[in-house]
Write a structure and sequence with these properties.
The two termini are 53 Å apart. The protein has eleven helices and 13 strands. The protein has three domains: 120 residues, Phosphorylase Kinase, domain 1; 179 residues, Transferase(Phosphotransferase) domain 1 (Transferase(Phosphotransferase), domain 1), CATH 1.10.510.10; 87 residues. The strands form four sheets. It has a six-stranded antiparallel sheet with strand order 1-2-3-4-6-5. Strands 7-9-10 form a three-stranded antiparallel sheet. A two-stranded antiparallel sheet has the order 8-11.
């Protein structure tokens, strides 16, 4: 009888658990029925709404008040951190419904990445909640406020070129925090839907459920979104250059409001010239590099992309009259002059001009006339007249040659002056660039020091489990 009663009780409990549509709504929600309906409509197994997830306050700290969306790695909810008042995003992962162990590996890898990477453009990991009975777990991170670039383009159309350059700068900085590690991290799912523009205009990268470590050889796991995936992802390889391809495809979507598979192609390559003809030549050239089918044709990582951006910025900063002069490798006065034709022409013109003038005066107007005068003194009438006439012609020819050499010397001097002015411009440009770089690195050093201080204070305040 006792055994039968226990069985009946267990059956009733199980039935109640399976019948639950959502956790009990106990805090932080004005319309409990609406939230219950939203949660019930997700693909989360109702049997998970027990233990740590029995109410909408998970982990005793995070009050869930809405559903953000569903993806391959789980369902993401939004809520409030009752400890700090900050907004959070919570991804629930049902271990029991995972197809294989790799799904759990991806979940753990996302948590490890958010825990180890500290960047203002990447969400911060706050907690990982685990229910020991069901095996369900939830990853809690800060919620990035704002709208995805996918939604922005859908509602307002393609981004302007100025807005595209801003996105390039922000995302390159974020990717640098992933690619610049001793063991580079590859996002593998960069696309407009995973880029969020905050209210202050900065763009952040979210959804790290597909991150992976750099692997140049083939693998058994393929992660990504069709159209934004680099060709090498189809056989499981991934390097930072893989993110470069996805970034290029993302920028083309933002520039055209068309998905990558809708864009014109030349063989395996996206035809950037035809797809985005209104963009500047510099931006089209950059997008062509980013979307090269062969990884070796793309920037290797975020650092290489940043170097490309610096080169483009340097070209734009140069004077309009001198758009293509090269930067010297050293600060020698001959470094730029060695490739400057005007400097060589100026030197030759001045040297030969001066020598010509001196020669015309000494030889044509002094020595030869003196010799002819001596000869004429020993000659008789008609012959003497011919010699004197020849002397006059020599003197006149020497004066003409003198004027010609003077013009040559003046032309050479002008060339030298022009070359010197350009060299001064180059030197000033180099000095300005050095000052700018010095200021940039000082600002970056101060920013990193402040981030380190903030991280330490936040860690001590929140008592986060990985500290």
């Amino acid at each position: 009888m006792v055994s039968a009663a226990r069985t009946a009780t267990e059956t009733r409990t199980t039935t109640r658990t399976e019948a639950r549509r959502a956790p009990d709504i106990v805090a932080g929600v004005a319309d409990a029925d609406k939230l219950t309906d939203e949660i019930a409509a997700t693909s989360v197994d109702p049997r998970l709404w027990t233990g740590a997830f029995a109410t909408n306050v998970w982990g005793g700290r995070f009050a869930i008040d809405g559903v953000l969306g569903e993806g391959a790695q789980g369902t993401t909810f939004q809520g409030t951190d009752l400890k700090t008042g900050g907004r959070v995003a919570v991804k629930v992962f049902d271990v029991g419904r995972a197809k294989d162990w790799k799904a759990l590996q991806l979940f753990d890898r996302e948590a490890d990445t958010l825990k180890s990477v500290d960047h203002p453009g990447i969400p911060k990991l706050l907690d990982v909640i685990v229910d020991q009975e069901t095996g369900a777990r939830a990853l809690v991170r800060t919620l990035v406020p704002g709208e995805s670039l996918a939604a922005e383009v859908k509602s307002r159309g393609p981004l302007s070129e100025a807005a595209l350059w801003s996105v390039i700068v922000d995302v390159t900085d974020v990717l640098g925090a992933l690619h610049g590690r001793s063991s580079p991290i590859v996002h593998r799912d960069l696309k407009p839907a995973n880029l969020i523009r905050r209210p202050d205009g900065k763009v952040c990268l979210v959804d790290f459920g597909g991150v992976g470590r750099m692997r140049e050889s083939a693998g058994s796991t393929v992660v990504g979104t069709f159209g934004y995936m680099a060709p090498e992802q189809l056989y499981g390889a991934q390097t930072p250059a893989t993110d470069m391809y996805a970034f290029g495809a993302t920028l083309l979507t933002l520039a055209t409001a068309k998905e990558p598979e809708e864009l014109p192609r030349q063989g395996l390559s996206i035809d950037v010239e035809a797809a985005a003809a209104k963009l500047s030549p510099q931006l089209r050239a950059l997008l062509t590099k980013l979307t090269a089918p062969d990884p070796s044709g793309r920037p290797a990582d975020a650092k290489a992309l940043l170097a490309e951006l610096h080169a483009i910025a340097d070209a734009k900063d140069r004077p309009a009259a001198e758009p293509s002069w090269p930067e010297p490798m050293v600060d020698s006065p001959f470094a730029a002059r060695g490739t400057d034709g005007d400097f060589l022409v100026g030197i030759v013109g001045v040297v030969f001009g001066v020598l010509g003038v001196v020669g015309a005066i000494i030889v044509g107007q002094l020595l030869i006339p003196l010799v002819l005068t001596i000869i004429a003194a020993t000659a008789d009438g008609a012959q003497k007249e011919r010699i004197l006439a020849a002397r006059a012609r020599v003197v006149e020819a020497a004066k003409v040659a003198q004027r010609s050499f003077e013009r040559s010397a003046q032309h050479g001097a002008r060339k030298l002056e022009s070359a010197s002015e350009r060299e001064r411009d180059r030197a000033e440009h180099r000095r300005r660039r050095k000052r700018e770089l010095k200021r940039h690195w000082k600002d970056e050093e101060r920013r990193l020091k402040q981030l380190a201080k903030d991280a330490k204070r936040s860690a001590r305040r929140d008592g986060r489990f990985w500290v």
